[in-house]
Amino acid sequence: MKQHRGSLNMERAPVDTGHHTRRVGVLLTGSVEPDYAIDCTPNLNLHQFVVAMFSIFGFISRVRTSSNPPEAKPLPNSKPIKFGVLGAAAIAPAALIIPAKSHPEAVVHAVAARSKDRAAAFAKQHGIAKVFGGLNSYQELIDDPEIEAIYNPLPNGLHYEWTMKALAAGKHVLLEKPAANTAEETRKMFELAEAKGVVLLEAFHYRFHPVAFRVKSILESGELGAVRSTSTTLSLPRGYMKADDIRFDYGLGGGALMDMGCYTIQAMRYFTGAEPTSVLSVKHDLQSPQIDRKTVATFSLPGSITSTILCDLSAPPTLKLIPSMPNLNAHIKCEKGEIKVMNYIAPTTYHSITVTTGGKSRVEKAYTFPELGEPWWTSYRYQLEAFVNKVKGRTPHAWITKEDSIKNMEVIESVYTKSGLGSRPKSDYIPN
Ligand SMILES: NC(=O)C1=CN([C@@H]2O[C@H](COP(=O)(O)OP(=O)(O)OC[C@H]3O[C@@H](n4cnc5c(N)ncnc54)[C@H](OP(=O)(O)O)[C@@H]3O)[C@@H](O)[C@H]2O)C=CC1
Ligand SMILES: O=C1OC[C@@H](O)[C@H](O)[C@H]1O
Questions:
Q1: Ligand 2: which atom is nearest the Cα of residue 176?
Q2: What range(s) does the Gfo/Idh/MocA-like oxidoreductase N-terminal domain occupy (predicted)?
Q3: Between 200 and 48, where is the model more confident?
Q4: Fewer CB atoms inside 10 A, N or C side of the chain?
Q5: Which residues are known to be catalytic?
């Protein structure tokens, strides 16, 4: 496994197109997957068929290995960080438990759940050593001296309270997105983290994957000129979420804009490298009076950039008949060309970065960094790499800063304010 810890700062690493490998070369040399492959194949022919086959094998291999990764042995000179998970949340296995298996310095040591049985069943299923069950279990887990880092995948409306409690106990926190219900709460959490000298990270996992870096580096290379407009979408078909999902609960910080929308806003801000100056328009499709099932918003950004975000938790079938497909795409139009990214959010399964300029298009892939990762590393695995490096005092390959997290919540709130739906309720938790 290619792992170079401690010395990497890859904020700009994948810019050099000299690293690119033509896919045909990759096939002939039998390498598994290039850092960045440029697909220059012409019409459908034997070669393209072989490429397609490799692409399918690559897909199967990445999906299989990422869900059942090789287990890493602890390093002789570094104590693994023991994580505790608050809640037997659906996202916990993908976001932390499975990625930790292949990380030599991370162990998910404990889980807490409001029901003892649920906690025990979850721990058994995922091989977690320590179990806390019952109504006081979250605090008990936080207070456990063995636990160094807390993973907080609670409903959005509980992020603030339990992150504050974990930080107050001197624990590092990997906090699910969106950071909280408000920018003010987000600011307070980061201030406490600073005061306590611990790490706090909002889990915008896609930002740690090579795809986000590659897109950003193409934009920064000047090849396409200045960004003119962006469109970032995350839309899931109806049936993906149950009616009683936390995302449809206003009291718990629900709404499409909070959930999928927080990424679309993050990606808009990341790809443009700018902050919106105004919200031009907002359209919600409501699930209930205060819950947006779908939101479309447009923004004005410095440099005459116009951006659109679209998030939908439950896109209805076309003509009431044809199931809608997930849309996880970003489209960035520039002065001299454009980039279309298919699946910027979960790129490990499959993605494409299509760059068009001067009437020509190329397709790039970015499953690994030149010096970091494996094709099967999910965005969560890359994120864990960065989190562990930060806790260990090393330079992570990517990071979401305090300012970034606060700004993202401000933009979310500005959209809800513009539409009149209003920010999600403030937590009534008052820190000691
Ligand atoms: N990074 C990513 O890709 C993803 C991030 N997320 C984020 O993770 C968080 C959790 O999402 P998800 O795992 O889908 O949610 P789940 O509903 O599966 O999990 C939420 C957990 O919160 C606990 N909980 C505590 N109080 C309540 C309450 N009043 N009502 C409901 N649950 C409560 C429950 O734990 P207990 O077991 O103690 O009952 C439950 O397991 C959200 O913030 C979401 O935005 C979600 C999906 C993907
Ligand atoms: O990545 C995600 O996919 C599904 C969403 O509902 C979830 O909250 C989000 O983080």
A1: 10
A2: 81-202
A3: 200
A4: C
A5: 177
What's the pLDDT tens digit per position in 249-287? Answer: 999 999 999 999 999 999 999 999 999 999 999 999 999
Model pLDDT, residue 364: 98
**DSSP per-residue string spanning 27-95:** HHHT-S--SEEEE---SSSHHHHHHHHHHHHHHHHHHHHHHSPPPPPPPTTSPPEEEEEES--TTHIII
Residue with CA closest to ligand 2 atom 8: 259
Index of the ligand 1 atom closest to the CA of residue 118:
37
Among 96, 139, 91, 132, which Cα is nearest to 115's?
132
If you average pLDDT over every residue of the chain, what do you get?
91
Q: Given the structure tokens 């910027």, which residue do they identify?
A: 344
The owner of tokens 């887990």 is 141
Dihedral sign of CA atoms 121, 166, 403, 182 in order: positive
Give the closest residue to 210 by CA, choosing from 2, 422, 418, 431: 2
Q: Within a 10 A sphere around the Cβ of 24, how many other Cβ atoms?
A: 15
Strands 329-334 and 337-342: antiparallel
Interatomic CA distance for residues 260 and 165, integer angstroms: 26
